[in-house]
Amino acid sequence: MLENFFMNKNCVVTASTSGLGFATAKMLSENGANVIICSRSNSNIENSLKKLKNAKGFTCDQSDENSIENFIKNVKSSFTHLDHLVYIPGDPRPGRFFDLDINDWHAASEILLMSAVKIVKDLVPIMNKNSSIVISTSIAIREPVQDLVLSNVVRLSLAGLVKSLSNELSPIRINGIIPGYFLTPRLERIIKIRNISIEDISKNIPLGRVGNPEEFAYLVLFLLSPLASYITGSMITIDGGLTRSIF
Q: For residue range 58-80, what is the model confidence (pLDDT) as tens digits?
């Protein structure tokens, strides 16, 4: 069924050579989309492209303005129009408040917020009224995560961006996803930082496990598709019931 919605559609997925980004790019590719992926690493791009159909890849360091500009140029030279954009940010430096200096805060703003602003601002002009955007954040915007103060604070700005742009970009739809813990390289880093195990995390999740990246990708494709034609400006949580907040 999803193939009917994405066949020959032009899609961009950022931070997409592993984890949630790659799962999303792969599912779009399997459903007939033309996909552009990106990463800071050429070798990661080359390895990922071997597993995808109808895909191109370009380097993009989401903390570097010049790199983002070059990526945008490559996208526009590949696609005359863009149907869907999936923005997945990079990860800021972990640490507690007094472990970090002001440069860390500026860097976190660049990699989380400003990269989203630049990419959306430059790609919206080649989108159309049926286009859609999904921005991924983190459960850190609902419940702060220990030792990840930069992520806890700066990712909140992405929710503000989604809500603001849902008014300004209409009829283009834009929604945000709040993912919990998934089996990704990022989870491996969190486990190492906090000196815990997947089992420790899973026991606090009502569904009793962490998520599979494909489950995240299914939600992304739903939000991009006409099945979600009356949803915009929303932040949707996918975390197995982990966050305790009602709203």
A: 999 999 999 999 999 999 999 99
Q: What is the 3-state secondary structure (H, E, C) of 41-102?
A: CHHHHHHHHCCCCCEEEEECCCCCHHHHHHHHHHHHHHCCCEEEEEECCCCCCCECHHHCCH
Q: What is the pTM of this model?
A: 0.95
The dihedral through the CA atoms of 108, 44, 119, 52 has a sign that is: negative
d(CA 162, CA 142): 15
* Whether 85 contacts 123, CB under 8 Å: yes
Q: Provide the pLDDT confidence category of residue 194 given band limits of 50, 70 and 90.
A: confident
Contact 113, 39 (CB under 8 A): no
C-beta neighbour count of 8 within 10 angstroms: 9
**Three-state helix/strand/coil letters over 135-151:** EECCHHHCCCCCCEHHH
Helix (H) or strand (E) holding 176: strand 173-179
**Tokens describing residue 109:** 């703003």
CA–CA dist 151, 193 (Å, integer): 14
Q: CA–CA distance from 241 to each of 135, 142, 214, 220, 238 (Å)?
A: 20, 12, 17, 18, 8
Strand partners, 34: 10
Contact criterion met (CB below 8 Å) for 210 and 239: no
Which residues does residue 136 pair with via DSSP β-bridges, in sequence order? Answer: 177
